Amino acid sequence: MNPRSTRIGIIGSGAIGGFYGLMLARAGFDVHFLLRSEYLAVQEHGLTLDSALHGQVKLAVQAYASAADMPPCDWLLVGAKATNNAELAPLIVQAAAPGAKVVLLQNGLGVEEQLRPALRADMHLLGGLCFICVHRQAPGQIRHQALGAVNLGYHSGPAGHDSAALVEAGAGLFRAAGIDSQAMTDLDQARWQKLVWNVPYNGLSVLLQASTTPLMADVDSRGLVQALMDEVVEGARACGQVLPQGYAAHLLRITEQMPDYWPSMYHDHVHQRPLELQAIYAEPLRRAAAAGCHLPRMQALYQALAFLDRRNLAA
Amino acid sequence: MNPRSTRIGIIGSGAIGGFYGLMLARAGFDVHFLLRSEYLAVQEHGLTLDSALHGQVKLAVQAYASAADMPPCDWLLVGAKATNNAELAPLIVQAAAPGAKVVLLQNGLGVEEQLRPALRADMHLLGGLCFICVHRQAPGQIRHQALGAVNLGYHSGPAGHDSAALVEAGAGLFRAAGIDSQAMTDLDQARWQKLVWNVPYNGLSVLLQASTTPLMADVDSRGLVQALMDEVVEGARACGQVLPQGYAAHLLRITEQMPDYWPSMYHDHVHQRPLELQAIYAEPLRRAAAAGCHLPRMQALYQALAFLDRRNLAA
C-alpha cells in the first residue's frame, strides 16, 4: 500500500474524525477533511492534536466546506454523530470514488442499516468501533487522553469482492498510521462488544453528571455500571452474539486504568446536541426484546435519558 | 374524646409535623411543638399555613426548644426525617406520658423496627403514611397544595391493649381535625402501598430534577414511573403483601390530577440534607431480595441516588 496514492475523505471532523484523519495525514496518506462550523478555523490554522501518546502534532490539512469540492475518495471515514447520518448520506456519496469504502466510526446498532439505502450499489460499507479517549477542545484542536484502537467489520457492498480482505486493508490503513486496528469477522459482534462500554458510561455521565473516575470509585455507581454491562452481555447473547468470556470485567479494569474521562454523550448534552440514544439504547433494546430478552436497567436508563434529552433540546 | 384533654406532642415540626400539628391545634387539641432551627421564628410569629384546601391559618403555638421543657404527651407525632430517628429517640421518650402512643409519620420500611428498642416498654408505636402535597416555605411557614389523608397502623406496645382500638383512636384525632384518616389492619401493607408512590417520584425528582407534572407528561419518564410502581407491587407481593388490584394505576391517576409537586426528597437534596434512601429503597430491596424477588429498576435507581447523595453531602 502506497500511502500517497490512497485518498481518504474525513466526513465530520470533530474529535474522532479529526484525530484519525490527522494521524493518517501525518503518516503520508492523501487526506481530505470535510468540515462545517470549523472550516474557517481549520483552513487558516490547520488541525492541532495534543496527545498523551503521540505528543503535539500540528498539520496544515486539505479542508473543504463542501463535498462537491472534494476529489473522489477511495476511503471515507465518517466521524460525525449517528444522529446526523440521514443528512450526511448525500455528501458521503458525492465524495466517494467508484467502489469507495465507507467506514462508519460510530457507536451503537443499526447505523449501517440506516445509511445503506442512501449509498450507491458500487460502494462498500464498513463499521468501525473506536476505543479511544479523545475530545475536541476548540475548533480544530483535539485532545487525546488515552487508547486509540479501531475495530473494523464489514457490513455490505457489491458482490464479487473479498470482504475479509477489504476489512484487512482498512485495518492496514490505521496500522500504517501507528494506530492499533483489528479486523473483526462479525461487525454485529464488534458493535455489541463496544456497547458493553458505551451503555453504562455514556448514559451515566449524563444522568449523574459524572466522569469515569468518580463512577468507578463509588461502590453504588460501580455496581450499577457492572449490572448494566451484564445486561448488555445478556442482550448480545440473546441476539446470537456470545461475547468473549470475562469481557465486562476486562472493560472495568481498562476503565479504572484510564485517566478520568467524560464520554462524548456528556459533551453532547452540555452543548445541547441530540444524544445518540437511538443507536446506543433503543435499537439494542428493541433487538434484545425481539429475541425475548428484557434488559430492565438499560431500559430505565434509556427512559431517563430520553426525558433529559427532550427537555434539553426544548430548552 | 375531649380535644382539650388530649395532649399531643409534635417532634420535628417541618412541613409534615407543622401541618398536622397546626390542624390539630386549630381543632382545639392541646398541641406542643418541639423545634430546633425554627424555634425562635415559631416562638415569635407562630405557625402559618397557606392551604389550597383549608385557606390561610395563622396560630400562636406552644413551642419548645428542648424536650425536657415539654409536658408529658399522650400522643407523639414524629414528622422528622427517618434519617434522624436514632438521634430523636431520647427526645421522644422524654416527652412521652406513661402509655404514650408514638406515631411515626414517615415513609419507607423498617423505621419502627429501628426506633422500637429505644422506646420504653409502656409506649405504643404506630406508623402513619401521609398522602399529602405539603412543603415548608420558610421557618414556621407551610404551604399545603393538595390531599392530606393519613393512613395509620399499629406496630408494637405493651400487651393487654386493643391495638385496633388504639389505631382507631389515632385516626379519630386526625378526623376531628378535618383530616381524612384510615385505620389500616396491617402497617406493613400500608407502608408498601405508600412506597408505590414514593419509590418512583421521590427518586426521579432528584435524579431528573423534575416535578410530577413533567414526569407524567413525557412518555418515557411516565413509562419509567409505571415500571417502578410495578416493581414495588411485585416486591410487596413477594413479601406477602398483596396490594389492592389496580393500585398503581390509581396512584398514576391521582398524581396526574395533583398540582405540580416537588417531592420532599427533592427539597432534601437541594438543601444538602441526607436522603431517606435506607427506608425507601435499601430496606424494601433487602426484604424483596430475601424473599427471592429482584427489582432491577428500583435497585438501579437506588444505586444512582446513593451516588448522588454521597457526592452531595461531601460537597
From TrEMBL, chains A, B:
It comes from the Bacteria. The keyword Zinc does not apply. Pathway: Cofactor biosynthesis; (R)-pantothenate biosynthesis; (R)-pantoate from 3-methyl-2-oxobutanoate: step 2/2. One of its GO terms (molecular function) is 2-dehydropantoate 2-reductase activity. It holds the Pfam family ApbA. Its EC number is 1.1.1.169. It catalyses: (R)-pantoate + NADP(+) = 2-dehydropantoate + NADPH + H(+). GO terms for cellular component: cytoplasm. Residues 186-307 form the Ketopantoate reductase C-terminal domain. Residues 8-156 form the Ketopantoate reductase N-terminal domain. Keywords: NADP, Oxidoreductase, Pantothenate biosynthesis. One of its GO terms (biological process) is pantothenate biosynthetic process. Catalyzes the NADPH-dependent reduction of ketopantoate into pantoic acid. Belongs to the ketopantoate reductase family. NCBIfam families: apbA_panE (TIGR00745), PRK06249.1 (NF004887). This is 2-dehydropantoate 2-reductase.
